[in-house]
Amino acid sequence: MTNLTIGAALEDPDTSVDLDARRFNRHTFWVGQSGSGKTYALGVVLEQLLLHTELPMLILDPNGDFTRLPETRASAGVVDADRMAELDIRVFRSGAGEGERLHVRYVDLAPASKAAVLQMDPIADAEEYNALLHEERDAHTFDGRDMLPGLRASGDPARVRLANRMENLQVLEWALWSRGAGSVVDVIEERPRATVLDLGGFEHPAEPKVAALAVLEHLWAHREERRPVLIVIDEAHNLCSPNPETAIERALTEQLVQIAAEGPKFGLWLLLSTQRPTKIHPNVLSQCDNLALMRVNAPRDLAELAEVFGFASEDAIRRSADFVQGQALFAGGFIAAPTFVQMGERITEEAGGDVKVPLRVEG
User: Which residue of 37, 41, 99, 159 has the fewest C-beta atoms within 10 A of its own C-beta?
Assistant: First the structure.
């Protein structure tokens, strides 16, 4: 058994607490309200997985908190620092800054997802939808800006309307598209130890959701290969809402529900991190067999956690309301018994963190 040391027992600081790495082959739910230390603590566990397993990770990172995962802190031990330096950790950014650009190919999307991007209904927009289905382009040379002239030159009214829709919505101008260049799914297919997708820098609010949809669709389409990957979704309520409103959000939620229900037998394992359980689709939440609970005060949230995660007592769950920053309850398959933990120190740099209030210097 490979043990991942994540911190010390809250009641006995001299006793370390370990998670069973083998049990990340089930979905994990990580929850804690703002200020609980949730993202920092999640980093502790991800570092341990990187150091002590060969499990590849895909990290969907809406706030850029894990973009410095390849950078070790000066306080890290030599052995851990050397090991981290050897790992293939790829960081893809949506906006300005160091790292590779986060791009996907529009033509790689499933037909229903392409239609969702274009806000098309297969019945109400039947002719345009059909024209989209029959529109074939070379995935590795496609540049959406060349698509409109070709559609208009066809003389087909449905294809002309499709071109107008694309232009009016300006979706082909999104920075997300690769325009004939490489796609992040090509890198994910190589299975680096960690692939971090910084989703926070796009201009259009739909772009991060389409980026996530593209990579999840790819993993699901290749599920029969049974190549394990841990799909880490930070601030998961942004991608897995119980009440998706747009066609893109519905497509993304449906894909996550499918992965939650059937993914484990194909090696597709979710780790969902969020502030409240009520913000996550119930069909995904109910499939989680591991729980990491940090401070949660809302009575409704505590009641739902106690109902969903029956392997932790209601009293233990309610104790989380009194946690201070960095304290957590771990329960479920990846730990022998429900355990209260003071999380350990990070090895790598955290890119995020709260902005401090500027204070006046008295003089």
Answer: 99
Q: How far apart are CA 213 and CA 219, in angstroms?
A: 10
Cβ–Cβ < 8 Å for 183, 104? yes
| 154 burial level (CB within 10 Å; 0-12, 13-18, 19+) | middle
Instruction: Answer left, alpha or beta for residue 100, where phi above 0 means left and psi between -120 and 50 means alpha.
Output: beta
- Helices 207-221 and 247-262 pack at an angle, to 10 degrees, of 30
- Cβ-based neighbour number of residue 189 at 10 Å: 13
- For tokens 């027992």, the residue is 9
pLDDT at position 292, please? 98
Residue type, 338: P
Q: What is the mean pLDDT of each run of 10 residues along the chain (363 residues)?
A: 90 95 97 95 97 97 94 92 94 79 91 92 91 73 72 88 90 88 92 96 93 97 97 96 94 97 97 96 97 97 95 96 97 96 94 59 59
β-sheet with 268-274: strand ranges across: 16-20, 3-9, 339-343, 327-332, 288-293, 27-31, 268-274, 229-233, 57-61, 194-198, 89-93, 100-101
Whether residue 222 contacts residue 216, with contact meaning beta carbons closer than 8 Å, is answered with no
Provide the pLDDT for residue 182: 86
- Per-residue b or e along 10-34, where b marks 16 or more CB atoms closer than 10 Å to that residue's CB: beeeeeebbbebeebbbbbbbbbbe
What's residue 221's pLDDT? 96
Beta-bridge partners for 59: 196, 232
- Report the C-alpha gap between 349 and 159 in whole angstroms: 50
